[in-house]
Specification:
Blueprint: E1 17-19, H1 23-26, H2 33-40, H3 43-55, E2 71-74, E3 77-81, H4 82-91, H5 97-105, H6 125-140, H7 145-159, H8 169-177, H9 180-210, H10 217-220, H11 231-244, H12 247-254, H13 260-269, H14 273-289, H15 309-318, H16 327-348, H17 353-401, H18 418-423, H19 429-442, E4 445-446, E5 450-452, E6 462-463, H20 464-467, E7 478-480, E8 482-485, E9 488-495, E10 510-513, H21 521-524, E11 529-532, H22 540-548, E12 552-554, H23 559-562, E13 568-572, E14 577-580
Parallel strand pairs: 9-10, 10-11, 11-12
Antiparallel strand pairs: 1-3, 1-5, 2-3, 4-6, 7-14, 8-12, 9-13, 13-14
Helix pairs in contact: 3-9, 4-5, 7-17, 8-17, 9-17, 11-14, 11-15, 12-13, 13-14
Length: about 575
Amino acid sequence: MADRWVADTLASEKYTIYTRANAGEVMPDPVSPLSSTMGIASAGDLGWRDAYVKAGSFTYDEFDPDRPDTVGVFGGYLYLNMSMTRIYGLRMPGLTPQMVDFQYFGDMPGITPYEDEARADDENEELTAKLQSYLNELFTRDDLPELRADRDEVDRLIARRPDLGELTDQELVDHARSFLPLYRRLFCRHILVSGASGVGIGTVAGVLAAIEQPELIMTLVAGLGDVDSAAPSWAMWDMSRIVRGSPDLTAAFDIGATGLHERLTALAESGSPSAEDFGKLFDSFIERFGARGPNEWELRSRTWGIDPDVPLAAIDRMRFAADDESPQTRTELRIVEREAATDFVRELVAGDAEAAGTFEVGLRCAHLYNAGRERTKTNNIKLVHEMRLALRELGRRAVERGDLSTVEQVFMLTEIELDDFVERPREFAGLVKAREAYYVSLWDLEPPFVSRGAPPPTSEWRHRAAASGADHAAPGEVLTGIPGCPGVARGRARVVLDPTDPRGLEPGDVLVAPLTDPSWTPLFVPAAAVVVDVGAQITHAVIVSRELGLPCVVSVTDATRRIADGAMIEVDGKAGTVTVL
């Protein structure tokens, strides 16, 4: 196996610590050449640089002009540059590199301390002053209308989408490229809002630490509502109720998820009223959420709109849940808990005007920007989907002509190769086939979680099958992680490694996952609790668990290996523990 491939980038020579933390939620699977050279490692990196400069944490002359700095792709996997994030924490008033580490890494072992890589020019009084002005602005905001403007701009582009079938091959390439300036701008917004959400949570956490109530942090930011990543689950829940109440639909679902969309379509055409009603709701769902799905930042991904059987598989798991297990019921409980906790803290700090003021502005900032973070992500994902559709049409035509074997092979090209592919597609047939074979082999590897500089060559990486041999935790053993969402739940552990294949997950089970991106969200709904191998207090699993009212613990090292599938466990989301019963 080669140690580098065409999607990989060069490691930064100045900022040397890389991690899969957070990056593994953005792109859990290997990055295709087109996604690297036309997306996350190009326009995405430039947008991240813009965000750092706008906030005041860096200047443009601190970046390498010849290679990505904020992210890296190694062995096909996306990495986040943690050195730069730590410097952001060092320069930001009220933050430290150690606090940033906790937000991103949680309690993961083997993390290189910031002190081991600190440089004299990391501290910068001028930029710290600029960041203070940025902070002052964050704490005075009570609305984010620019996010709605971004959403409306993307929606207008979608509404004006040309008939892709009428475009020439070169016009398809040009259409996909036309989104890159907006990709950069939307990604910049996403990074700014994500950083602000961490500032809000960190500010509240500081107040809670001073009054010796640190465990309340997740309760105080639960049940906020208007979180985009949770919205598809609510829509799926409504459809699951139709299935649950319909003998026709139940019979169709009982056959299995494969080919389910075709069976439901045929059932509706046969005149089944429930199938017709379900079909209308599902068509509306795909129109609204078709850009979402597994690994949705990846251009090659088969999102829900491309493969409708994937969301139907999630609805299949939800249909077994009783009506009183709805996400609405859980969220209402979390709202009550949040309001009670807020009143409790206000009483504790009432005699300290400074602490009381800090708590209020921090809480407002945390609420506003946590919901905003998911909105900016949605705006980005919808734009990526527009690029995806144009490139898939290019691939479809190549398959029709016999130039490619599958539509997905078009994503084995790099951005710079697209024009030549349009002119001489048959010259690339062998190249993309070989790249695809190598790309598929990367899925069997486990990327190192943290690395100083580029990770070791892929020939030295563990294979996932070999890495899955950790001893199962014994009854009575307690695994510890980071509190994600409060609450206690007991249930059967269901270890799920692929969100597109949730077979076996039943209502009341505890979902145990390696990591989660939005494609996992629907699987949260029937679950009693969520446990994740990695993550921290601003990661996806925590945000969505808070909205759906699920006890959640993240950063439980090797949970998917140490917890036996089918074991009875207890999850304490407030204490951050998982006990094997």
